[in-house]
UniProtKB/TrEMBL annotation:
All copies of domain HTH tetR-type, residue ranges: 33-93
InterPro entries for this protein: Homeodomain-like_sf (IPR009057), HTH-type_TetR-like_transc_reg (IPR050109), HTH_TetR (IPR001647), Repressor_TetR_C (IPR004111), Tet_transcr_reg_TetR (IPR003012), Tet_transcr_reg_TetR-rel_C_sf (IPR036271)
Protein name listed in UniProt: TetR/AcrR family transcriptional regulator
PANTHER family referenced in this protein's UniProt entry, alphabetically: HTH-TYPE TRANSCRIPTIONAL REGULATOR RUTR (PTHR30055), TRANSCRIPTIONAL REGULATORY PROTEIN (PTHR30055:SF151)
Keywords: DNA-binding, Repressor, Transcription, Transcription regulation
Start-end of DNA-binding region: 56-75
SUPFAM superfamilies: Homeodomain-like (SSF46689), Tetracyclin repressor-like, C-terminal domain (SSF48498)
The keyword Chaperone is assigned to this record: no
Organism annotation: Amycolatopsis dongchuanensis
């Protein structure tokens, strides 16, 4: 999983690019009909296929059939490109109208929309977003998700806290699912021969009983879908206590 973070580039230049301010248009270099959107799309396709580690200005330029120096006239570097990719992914998320439905159903939809985002773009779950992107995609996403909390007797700070709590849970589920998909089988293949020699079932009776029951129920040591559904219900139960209080 990548350890990249948003907001690592030049803030002024990044905001101009995110909002497609005319000031961000290239003023030098060869004109080849390239657009910022085309650069973002190429970088996103590369990240979807090979992970964020594969995204470099050189690789994106290669995918677009231009020289790397040409690319720099559109986007100053990978840090700014990362914010553009994330905001574009946010902008393209399907947003279901849940008005009139109970708040638990509305928040369940928000959670499922974010999980779908991470399944489409697994790299997005690995980006630290302590510095928000602040582009049109991010703000549209935030506005939409806050609407799922309409009608609850919470102040604005609590509304933000509740949403952040929910989204952090979804992101952790997506990271765990991605790690399992990447490493699970190879880890078990390497571990089983040693465990067969050293594991003493009598020394760990609870671990054996509960672990065996869970493994049989889920078909593996970890079931991402079950973990998401079980955890989401507990998150919503916790928010219900907040709302009731």
């Amino acid at each position: 999983m990548s350890t990249e973070r948003s907001g690592a580039g030049d803030p002024a230049r990044t905001l101009c690019l995110l909002w497609r301010d005319p000031a961000a248009a290239p003023k030098r270099g060869p004109r080849q009909g390239l657009t910022i959107d085309a650069v973002v799309d190429a970088a996103t396709a590369l990240a979807d296929a090979e992970g964020l580690e594969a995204v470099s200005m050189r690789r994106v330029a290669q995918a677009l059939g231009v020289a790397p120096m040409t690319l720099y006239t559109y986007v100053p570097g990978k840090a700014e490109l990362l914010d553009l990719m994330l905001d574009a992914a946010y902008a393209r998320m399907p947003r279901e109208d849940t008005s009139g439905r109970p708040w638990r159903e509305r928040l369940t939809v928000v959670a499922e929309e974010n999980l779908a985002l991470y399944r489409t773009h697994p790299w997005a779950a690995g980006i630290a977003t302590n510095r928000p992107v602040l582009g049109p995609g991010q703000l549209a996403k935030y506005e939409h998700e806050l609407s799922a909390l309409d009608g609850l007797d919470l102040d604005d700070v609590a509304l933000d806290d509740a949403l952040a709590f929910l989204l952090a849970f979804v992101r952790s589920c997506a990271q765990a699912a991605a790690a399992q998909q990447r490493d699970d089988q190879s880890w078990w293949d390497a571990s089983e021969p040693l465990l067969a020699r050293v594991f003493d079932e009598k020394a760990y009776p609870r671990a054996v009983r509960v672990g065996s029951a869970a493994g049989q129920a889920h078909g593996s040591a970890y079931d991402p879908e079950h973990a998401f559904r079980f955890g989401l219900a507990r998150v919503l139960d916790g928010l219900a206590a907040l709302v009731a209080g």
